[in-house]
Design goal:
2 copies of one chain form a homodimer.
Chain A: H1 8-20, H2 25-30, H3 38-50, E1 54-59, E2 62-67, H4 71-86, H5 91-102, H6 108-124
Antiparallel strand pairs in A: 1-2
The structure holds a DNA duplex (30 and 30 nucleotides).
DNA sequence: CCAGCCGTGCTAGATTTATAGCATTAGGAT
DNA sequence: ATCCTAATGCTATAAATCTAGCACGGCTGG
């Protein structure tokens, strides 16, 4: 369990990897707002790999790094953590906040799908 | 901008404060899974206060700490960060994931409110 | 009164994180 | 073949985090 927490830089790097899916050391560095040296990024990637949070493949003479954990699982964990700390006990508020923050970016099709989910929830809750 | 990053412990402590709203040093310590010494928690709270992330009130002879930032703003920031890193470019997926993860905990009234939000989004998107 | 119990402030030290620089290897071009 | 570029592995050191312990002050009960 223990959810091995990350240091500041490690957290930044893991976030980049989750966002990009996979990336070289240089790409990771480029995606960090206040980037440290290339060397430092590589060192962090190595230690993250040692700890089992990241893995790499050799690709075109380069190393391409990616999160070791199943992305879906990581997403669920992040969601749960966020709901627990910022919307404790009221997931509905979380959904509402998320929805209203992005309402203008949602397509009609998106809204249809959400509609379906809500209808399903009503079915279950009956 | 720069989103002043926290160290591992600082992050843990801030999360507890957001979850509880306000808490004494002892309560913060109790809420941390693998707690450091009471002294260490106090030291962290002090440095967090120096940096302006936390403030305290004297209450019943004790210090009660709370986040300095507007909780609503912090929530919005956390949501945006999560969507950006785990659901880049597809907020709809994020909403869907959140919704299906908690569908069983939502009351009929909750669902009504979400319904309203979706309807509003349709209006706007027209 | 005064001893014991909280609570705080502070400082010094251990531990972890973060960084840079150097050595080495592989490929591609001249 | 040899040089140049671009990548990796490693190690030493700088910087920040994390921690514990001690000193002090105020309340409270005997």
């Amino acid at each position: 369990m223990s959810a091995a927490p990350f240091s500041r830089r490690e957290r930044q790097i893991m976030d980049v990897l989750f966002r990009l899916g996979k990336a070289t050391a240089a790409q990771v560095r480029a995606a960090i707002p206040d980037p440290p040296s290339y060397s430092a990024v590589r060192a962090h990637l190595r230690t993250l790999e040692d700890k089992g949070h990241v893995r790499h493949k050799a690709e075109e003479l380069r190393y391409v790094y990616m999160p070791a954990q199943n992305p879906e699982k990581a997403r669920r964990g992040a969601l749960r953590h966020l709901v627990d700390t910022f919307f404790p006990g009221s997931p509905a508020t979380a959904v509402a906040a998320l929805l209203s923050a992005h309402s203008s970016e949602l397509s009609g099709r998106d809204l249809d799908e959400l509609q379906t989910l809500i209808d399903q929830a009503r079915e279950e809750g009956r």
